[in-house]
Write a structure and sequence with these properties.
The protein is of the alpha+beta class. It folds into two domains: about 400 residues, no CATH class; about 180 residues, Regulator of K+ conductance, C-terminal domain (Alpha-Beta Plaits, 2-Layer Sandwich), CATH 3.30.70.1450. About 55% of the residues lie in helices and about 10% in strands. The strands form two sheets. The chain has a five-stranded antiparallel beta sheet with strand order 3-2-4-1-5. A five-stranded antiparallel beta sheet has the order 8-7-9-6-10. A hairpin with a 2-residue loop joins strand 7 and strand 8. The chain starts with a helix and ends with a helix. About 50% of the residues are buried.
Length: about 600
Amino acid sequence: MPELAQALLQPGALTTLAVLAGSVVLFTSGWLAPEVTGLLAAGLLIASGVLTPSEALRGFGSPAVITLMGLFALSAGLFRAGGLDRLRALLGSDAIRSPRRMILLVTTVVGPVSAFVPNTPIVAALLPVLEGWCQRRRISPSRVLLPLSFATVLGGTLTLIGSSVNLLASEVSERMGYGALGLFSFSGIGIGVWLSGSLVMVLLADRLLPDRGLNDDDLVADLASSGYLTEVEIPAGSELIGQSLHDSRLQRRYDVDVLELHRGRERFLPPLADRTLALGDRLLLRCSRTELLRLQQEHTVILAPTPESAAPPNPNDLQNKQRMVEVLLPSGSALTGDCLRDLRFRQRYNATVLALRRGNQVVRERLGQVVLKEGDVLLLQGPKDAIRGLQANNDLVVLEQLEKDLPTVGRKGVAIAISVLVVVLAGLDWMPLVAAVLLGTVAMVASGCLRPGDLQRAIRLDVILLLGSLASFSVALEKTGLATAMAQTLLRALADWPVYGALLVVFLFTTLLTEVMSNAAAVALLIPVAGQLAVGLGQPPLAFVYAVLFGASQSFLSPVGYQTNLMVFGPGRYRFLDITRYGLPLTLTMTMIVPLLICRHFNL
């Protein structure tokens, strides 16, 4: 590795390598949010003098980031105006009678839609539809939700705007002199990827997708078997006051388990059968939803008020005015990283958290102190109006269809027309993509499809910060010569390999790296190296750029590899290896097919 050793002697090279290595550790460990890691790396590269401020921060003003901001707004306007209502109705149709048919429909319809609409809001919008279909057909959600995520991932590789990773790859490619990517530059490859991946998903669904059981009653009934974990308080007039748990027959009469007792600052753990209960005692219960309702209706207990709440919910309102729903914390939710108590959750949303599920496990800590994570599923109880209002919240996804409670929309045609016009203008090269997207965003607001406040909330600040800061990675690699040195080291190892083999290695390495760190970070790190490798092999640099681009988009091995995988992980009650078992054949197929399609595309 003489080239790499010589490159490390260049000014700033060791510092750059140390910053990048530390960033990879942070990305893979998850100690910091990805966007915070990106900002940290950019700040260190500036402070150490490796990059000037303009070099490190040029990504924030790049066309890719501005385009992405506009795409978030366009998709928000499309959803708000009901532009995808027909798709929701199609997937919720009772004419679809089996999981295989549903998966076939999802791959053939949802995949292409994901080529033009960001996949995260698509999954958020369709999750309640598919869960409702599963309830009506008596089918486990685990049989169809993972294919929904994978279908959007495959569809995101059909066009330049299908994924933020594609836009970042175009930006890095243009900065390195290889040229920017057009809206349909790699669609020929993407169509092959989409068709082959869809075929594998449909054929292997019955064998490899698990059956995690059916929700017997509603979306939260799967928690009933293991029981909710919730804090309750003994109110005035309760039959429990002055009695022991044994004498009250609470656990036998209501089929509940008392896990802890809190009295002021004291905490008592089992055995609790002989301890006398008093007014104001807090109990941590494990019980079914039905039993919890009975206990409240009979005024035996009330939901324990959180410190910020002066008054607990009125149990008399439970049946007529209160509603229970599950909500999901999607990728990018502003609630992640905080606990319910610090968030003042009940005061903010006028809803009480009854239980929390993480993956297929019920969290057994006190709910107010649990630090929320992306993919968590919360069981909420609150007034119907409050639950209805959550549908417009970007930080929570309501996992239940409440469309009948919403007013009908009248600008659906306008929103669809604006979106189609943006694609046509950019696709025919009548104007740059960024101009078409910006004009489309203005048209959405001017036509009333999107309110100015909705426009601001639609923009995913975490994604913008990540992509903007990651530009410093590729600039530093190029400026210090590390990209060239790494490429020469790879060239020495791959010199006698056919082009197909070299592309396969680049694709597979990118795919595996994406499973443990941000796919955007993988693109920023690997495209400079892959481009230099292509030059050394005498091949078109864009061919290797495409290998990195598709490799970073093919995340099928873990729930944390892609945000949509994490979104379906909780509602589907999947286990970690469920993702790997279903995604491994898909990954192997893509590893063999993508390099072949790239070779055919460039006549290599």
